[in-house]
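Quick check before the chapter quiz. The format below is the same one you will see on the exam, so make sure you can read both the input and the output lines.
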Amino acid sequence: MSVGAALEQLLRLIHRRAMRLAALPEDERDSHYDLIRLSCCAAAEHIGQSPDRAALTANDMVEFVRALVGIIEMGGGPDHGRSTDQRPPVRHFGGQENGPTRI
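Here is the expected output.
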C-alpha cells in the first residue's frame, strides 16, 4: 500500500470515528478518547517511537479528533445535510490533480 493510500485510509477512519463521537453526549466521549489514545500509543511504539514520544503522538491524535468533533458539531453534526458515508472534498497538493478530490 502506498503512503498516500494509507493516509487516505487513516483519514477516512478518523472521520468516521469523529462522526460517531459527535453523535454521543459529551459525557460519554472520554472513554472513547482514552481508547484512541491507547491504540495510537501502541501503534506509535510498534513503528519504533520511544514510549515518551509515542505518548505525545497519541495525545496529539486525540486532540486532533477532539477538534474534528468540534468542527462537526459546529456544522450541525451527522444530520446536517451530509450522511456519514459521504466525505468532504480533500485537496491534494503536489500531484497532477488541480481540483478537490473525494476520498
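If your answer matched, good. The CA atoms of residues 36 and 62 lie 7 Å apart.
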